[in-house]
């Protein structure tokens, strides 16, 4: 009796095992399409790559098409390059696969011509007519402004309606992120590189675009330059004064601090190592040659940020007067 029951159980288990579905067989060719970069700018080159863990890609027949036009076809053709769509336009990238076992599958990715500009400038001092970019120095603030170009159904979304997620050195700043927050301000702490990244999305989260920039602080330091200040024409910014300058009767020196934080900057003027105070603005020193005298004088200037001991600069100039 025991032998009969044992044989019956063995037979039952065998029958049940034969009745289980075969999980190693696939109803279709399962794969994915990856885009590099994931957020291409309009007109740039995009690489699409096919990947699968379920079949041998090198032996599969693969057909690629963009907007219905076949771009590539053949055995193991797992990569294609194509151009991203123009601003506001849409492209569909499709891949069809037939494996060596005869399984078939297809997948597609839709691209929209979106873009995102990130513009940065340091909140530091420069002359009024300065045409260059304000650069950061140690412990200065930097402002990054986002200009998004995101499209939905052919229309560009309003910047104020988008959600902004800012990250500094790959750490999200929750206080700086949110709806309509299209700019980000941070303070430099050392001379390392700073990575600023931004994820912009629509309110329904169906349109998403990401971009980042690297800001190399390097050895950027504040500077101080001296210019002649003409009483009628104003400062002569086309040429900074260096080394020495000859003066007939009088001269007005204008000191311009570059890349200091915009708060509490002090100017310490010295003539022949003796302190001298300007008559008007702290950055403008007027000198008049005593009648009948000839000689040389050394002018030194130390500039510092009274709130930040790491921001300072100095310069010197030799005044040669009374030669004419």
Number of helices: 1
Got a strand count?
26
Instruction: Specify the structural class.
Output: mainly beta
Radius of gyration: 35 Å
Strand fraction equals over 45%
Q: Summarize the main sheet.
A: 5 strands, antiparallel
**What is the N-to-C succession of helices and strands?**
HEEEEEEEEEEEEEEEEEEEEEEEEEE
N→C terminal distance: 135 Å
Whole-number average pLDDT? 88
The percent of residues in helical segments reads under 10%
Inertia-based shape? elongated
- Model regions low in confidence, pLDDT < 50 over at least 5 residues: 1-27
Tell me briefly what this model is.
The protein is mainly β and 324 residues long.
Structure description:
This protein is mainly beta and 324 residues long. The chain has one helix at 2-19, and strands at residues 32-36, 45-51, 61-66, 69-75, 79-83, 90-98, 104-112, 115-122, 141-149, 151-152, 155-156, 163-168, 171-172, 178-179, 183-187, 193-201, 208-216, 223-230, 234-235, 244-247, 250-258, 265-271, 274-276, 284-288, 295-305, 308-321. The strands form 7 sheets. Strands 12, 13, 14, 16 and 17 form a 5-stranded antiparallel beta sheet that branches. The chain has a 5-stranded mixed beta sheet with strand order 20-26-25-22-23, with no helix packed on it. A hairpin with a 2-residue loop joins strand 10 (151-152) and strand 11. It is elongated and about 105 Å long. The protein starts with a helix and ends with a strand. The model is unreliable at 1-27 (pLDDT under 50).
List the helices and strands and how they pair.
Layout lengths: L1 H18 L12 E5 L8 E7 L9 E6 L2 E7 L3 E5 L6 E9 L5 E9 L2 E8 L18 E9 L1 E2 L2 E2 L6 E6 L2 E2 L5 E2 L3 E5 L5 E9 L6 E9 L6 E8 L3 E2 L8 E4 L2 E9 L6 E7 L2 E3 L7 E5 L6 E11 L2 E14 L3
Parallel strand pairs: 20-26
Antiparallel strand pairs: 1-2, 2-5, 3-4, 3-6, 6-7, 8-9, 9-15, 10-11, 12-13, 12-14, 12-16, 16-17, 18-19, 18-21, 21-24, 22-23, 22-25, 25-26
